[in-house]
Write a structure and sequence with these properties.
The protein is an alpha/beta fold and 219 residues long. The chain has ten helices and six strands, in the order E-H-E-H-E-H-E-H-E-H-E-H-H-H-H-H. The radius of gyration is 17 Å and the shape is globular.
């Protein structure tokens, strides 16, 4: 298993087992883990000192186990906007998605549930996408956002296939990746995407289409 691009990474996770697991996954993939720490204070210190390409942080860490990791991520984006951020959570909390995406613009951002780490190949692909400036959101979060929207609103105008495409778009997938998942042509996906943006009155030319879709879903 090899990395598409060698990344310098700082990890912040208070669970020693998961922290060491992440270190092993990343190093076997060819990335450089420049620091692996257990709290937000150490995370901020090492980021300021090493300026990594990517930060992977838990949301809840000592001392209060509330949102220390999320606040540290926002501080990092404000001080070092080029650094990509991947936030991990033990459970679905879609409010954190809004806070993360609404933070200072900069490098790529991601929000994944911790059990996604076990799907190593997909996890590494998500890290590559975030490091390249993309946005990745856990599929379970996307499904929850879809369920929360008013069934009588614009989403009701979408066909079942368009809803499938919308969910995959919100995960940060490209048209090619969506075509592979749904076993259709990329041309068919482009048509569905165009229909979705038209029905939801979103800008089809936006290079931040994931953020646009998520903004609509959580609105």
């Amino acid at each position: 298993m090899s990395a598409q691009c060698r990344l310098r990474v700082v990890i912040a996770e208070d669970s020693a087992l998961l922290r060491e697991g992440l270190v092993g996954i990343l190093e076997r993939a060819g990335h450089d883990v420049v620091a692996a720490v257990e709290d937000a204070e150490a995370l901020l210190a090492f980021v300021a000192h090493t300026r990594p390409d990517l930060v992977i942080t838990d949301i809840r860490m000592p001392p209060d186990h509330s949102d220390e990791g999320l606040r540290a991520a926002a501080a990092i984006r404000a001080a070092h906007p080029a650094i990509a951020i991947m936030v991990l959570s033990a459970y679905v909390a879609d409010a954190y998605v809004a806070e993360l995406l609404d933070s200072t613009p900069g490098g790529g951002v991601g929000y994944l549930l911790k059990d996604r780490v076990g799907h190593v190949r997909e996890f590494l692909a998500d890290l590559d996408r975030v490091a390249a400036g993309g946005t990745v959101v856990d599929p379970q979060v996307v499904r929850q956002l879809l369920r929360r929207r008013d069934a009588d609103g614009p989403l009701a105008a979408l066909t079942e296939r368009e809803r499938d495409v919308l969910a995959l778009m919100a995960e940060g997938r490209t048209n090619g990746s969506i075509a592979e998942v749904l076993v259709v042509s990329e041309a068919a996906v482009r048509k569905h995407v165009g229909n979705i943006f038209a029905k939801l009155d979103l800008d089809p030319g936006s290079d931040r289409r994931v953020s646009a879709v998520l903004a609509y879903l959580r609105g």
